[in-house]
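Sample entry (139 residues):
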Amino acid sequence: MKGRLHFVSPKGSASMVADAIGKEVNMIKEALPPAYMPENVILMFLGCEGGKMDKVTMEFIRTLNPKRVNNAALFCCNAKKDDKAIQQMKEALTAVGVKVLPQTYVCSGKGFLGGKHPSEEELKGAAKWAKECAAKVSE
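Predicted structure, serialized as tokens:
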């Protein structure tokens, strides 16, 4: 399956989640903005950090259309473990005609003893979620 894995990660949490996703579904992660724009992508994983969608992600989404990306799977890392940023990405992607999978992944980005990175359990959860998303698109 032709796929892409993009993210914005100023604190490193989303990058760690992208590593886990990439290993599970055999995709190379690429920070936004990408070196090359996606074309004919069946599934794109897109992630960010924080409680709202950042400007870089918004600008990237504005360049997309269904010919570039068919389906998107969204993930986010934030301390509150809410999905506000995911909802904002979903609305923006839907507005440009990209289908968004209903399955999303949110992790706290807090590791052992209050560290700033996702726990091993959260990374395993991200890998499992990614595999499920890839299977859903392959059906």
